[in-house]
Amino acid sequence: MKLDTLIKFQNMDRRWIFLGMGIAILLPLLFPITLSFNIDERVQSLYDSVEEVPAGSTVFISADFDPASRPELEPFFRANLHHLLRKDVKFVAATLWPSSPPLVMPIFEEITAEYGKEYGKDWCFLGFKDGKELAIKAIGENIPETFPTDIKGNKIADLAVARSFKQAKDFAMIINVSAGFPGTREYVLQIQGQYDLKIASATTAVSGPDYIPFYKAGQLTGLSAGMPGSAQYEQLVFPDGPREGERLMATQAVNVLNVGHLFIIVLILLGNIAFFVTRRVEEAAP
Amino acid sequence: MRSTIPLVLTFLVGIFMVGEYFIPHWRYHQWTAVLLEWGLILAAAAFLLGLFNLVQVNLPKVMNKEEDWGYKLVMLVSLVGTLVVGFMGNTDRLSDGQAYKWLFDFVFVPLNATMFALLAFYIASAAFRAFRARNLEATVLLVAAIIVMIARVPMGEDLPLIGEKLPQFMNWIMDVPNIAARRAIFIGAALGAVATGLRVILGIERSHLGAD
Amino acid sequence: MSGIELVGAWVSIFLTVCVLSFLYDDNPVYKLAEHVFLGVSIGYGVIEIYFGVFKPNLLDKLMNDELGMLQRSLSIVPLILIIMLFSKVVPKYSWLARIPIAFIVAAYAGVKLTGELNANLMTQVAQSIPNLAEVWEKHGFWDWSADGAGVFSSLFLVLGLAACLLHFYFSAPQNKAMQQISRFGVLTLMLSFGASFGYTVMGRISLAIGRAQEMLGLDRSAEQVAQIHPRTASLICILLVVGYLVAWRRKQGDDYTPGN
Predict the structure, then answer these.
(1) Which stretches within C67-175 are classed as H helix?
(2) Sign of CA dihedral A51, A54, A56, A61
């Protein structure tokens, strides 16, 4: 192969790569292939820890994600709500991200309505609180002081599901759906050790490797990372497949990753082959 | 005086917050809850200060028709529009049919999500152009990345010969070298954070107070 | 779906295509979308901060007659601190802002100190010291069924951790033996960063998949797809934006230099 061709190839306009990436994402969506997958031990552990929560008890959900992380985390979030509600577990939810309330409130309302759950009695959403680590510390310390009212303006003392819980340790467990900062790391650092809390985390793929040490050290009872984690959790919660008229979004999307990853690997290999051949030709040249 | 009071305050508040971890007495925790609430409110106010600064910087540019003033006008109009529909909606702002909710579902969500979706394309470009196995370290990084990329997707488990062992090897990478490296980083960062925290509380670090 | 929601669905797809046009080049359509995003996102932040923090934790408490005198008085303190913080915009009184800043910085320093010490330092170090006898009994030297757990992996973890920590020790010159150990630490770091890169690729592609699912209508029910026609909408929006980009590029003529 000629040297200038190789150099041209290595320096090609990156818009061709963008086009290739676009095709690698669109094609498997238009012509889906469905491959089965195994369940990670960490996701199984997360599922089992939720299974162990007794019926009638209450968990604290911290929904800390935004529209950008929806594809990775919303499928888990939805499946988790189904998992909790069909076990007759109540929940009190809050968020540390300002763009989360408009995203999660409709999902809460949609799924709780399916199970006939009543707001204030079976679930409530306390809304957003700024302050990052301080907010988490405050949740560990004193929830009624931190959230005097819920997102609808109701006093927390008037909410049957929330009024008897003063601190994070009073809940059966904490489920943190976390897209970044503030999120799981801050929950673990600030209150998990101090109050010996049971925390399970669903996080984006980018943060997954960071939280594995927390899981291995027992600071997290389970960990779901990225879209594959959400897909695996969907499989555990819906072992018979999606309900009629619905889709399992992560399960559908995870197979697209096959082609996407393959494309990236091919790019890396081609880039390296071109690099080494160029270097050899240049070294051999007089 | 202008430096002394903030330094004394830093010391007292810092020590008080450190004490929260060690002192279990309920009266002490009543007061830490109060301080934490003040901290939340101040953190929120700092965001508002940023908003004020944004308007302070961009409004004169629009008024004087400086470069890109049209875009800045669009930004300010979007900001004011969102504030208006948000305050008008009040506690019902997240209900169906509200303009605030419409703006979130059909303007904020696609813009926010697509901004981050662009990264998929740039990571492909970066992988092609920059990811070179120039030495042993880079080769190890590259091989680990490829193993994880193949093993993390359903296709990886179906590969002939290596399909069974590949996810196990990937899990080994995540459970052993990854944890070793992350723990080293966490320990180093923790020591740094403790040192910096102590420096701030003891008044050795004063950069947050600005110049005298 | 109502008419306004239908319009919204098309606006959503149009804005998606506007942002994606950045892949071609930084262009006016993208800039417009970017500035709308900036304005709207800051607006959302302010609204949620007001309803999430200021109203319940400050204003309602100040105006609540049911609360005791002490509690209401305590609520005045953050109000005074906020006023002092905003004095930053007036150069003559900007020094007053040091007090609320000192408060905030000290509060964060205090909570971070104990949090990092406990969760990142002590717990992680404690978990890094394996009980080799127990590991040998449970997994032997190497156990494939437990993803490679065993004495080898436990020793690798401890030695890898120590080697990485030694690599981070920059304040003293390292002799030859230390350099070799440091190299092992670097290789351990590279394995970890390679795994991180793999996960990052997965995460980024997932975000793009989400957008593609919306543009193809795969995230909606059949009924909604029949009303919105997302694929038609996507095609029309792409044609509109491409048409604009062609016209824009022609207008630039010889002056055009690709920004990408």
Answers:
(1) 69-86, 98-115, 123-127, 132-139, 151-167
(2) negative
- pLDDT tens digits along A194-253: 999 999 999 999 999 999 999 999 999 999 999 999 999 999 999 998 888 788 999 989
Task: Count Cβ atoms within 10 A of the Cβ of residue C60 and give its class: 0-12 exposed, 13-18 middle, 19 or more buried.
Answer: middle
Question: Containing H/E element for A231?
Answer: helix A226-237
Put simply, the chain C residues between 84 and 143 with a CB less than 8 A from any chain B CB are 85-86, 88-89, 95, 98-114, 116-118, 120-121, 124-125, 128
pLDDT of the residue at B110: 96
For residue A54, how many other CB atoms are within 10 A of its CB?
9
What is the domain count for chain B? 1
User: Which ipTM was obtained for this model?
Assistant: 0.92
Query: How many angstroms from the chain centroid is the CA of residue C204?
Result: 12
Cα–Cα distance for residue pair B156/B147, rounded to 1 Å:
9
Neighbouring residues of C97: CB distance < 8 A, sequence distance ≥ 6: C84, C85, C86, C87, C88
Chains in touch with B (3+ beta-carbon pairs under 8 Å) read A, C
Q: From residue A255, how far is each of A27, A34, A225, A261, C198 by CA, in Å?
A: 11, 6, 16, 10, 16
Tell me which residue range forms the domain holding B191: 131-212
Cα A146 to Cα A52: distance, rounded to the nearest angstrom: 29
Any C CB within 8 A of B31 CB: no
Share of chain A residues as helix, strand and coil, in percent rounded to the nearest 5 = 55, 15, 35
Contacts of A138 in chain B (CB under 8 A): 33, 36-37, 40
Residue B204 lies in a domain: yes
Chain C residue nearest residue B43, CA to CA: C104
Instruction: Name the minimum distance, in Å, from the CA of A85 to any CA of chain C.
Output: 23
Rounded to whole angstroms, how far apart are CA atoms C103 and B35?
9
The candidate with the shortest Cα–Cα distance to A260, out of B117, B63, B9, B2, is B117
> Does any domain span residue B194?
yes
Q: How many other CB atoms are found less than 10 A from the CB of residue C137?
A: 9
Residue B210 lies in a domain: yes
Nearest to C260 among A14, A130, A214 (CB): A14
Locate the chain A residue with the closest alpha carbon to B86: A102
Q: Which band of pLDDT confidence, cut at 50, 70 and 90, is reported for residue C258? A: low
Contacts of residue C138, Cβ cutoff 8 Å, sequence gap at least 6: C149
- Decide if B79 is inside a domain: no
What's the length of chain C? 260
Phi, psi values for residue A126, rounded to 5°: -80, -10
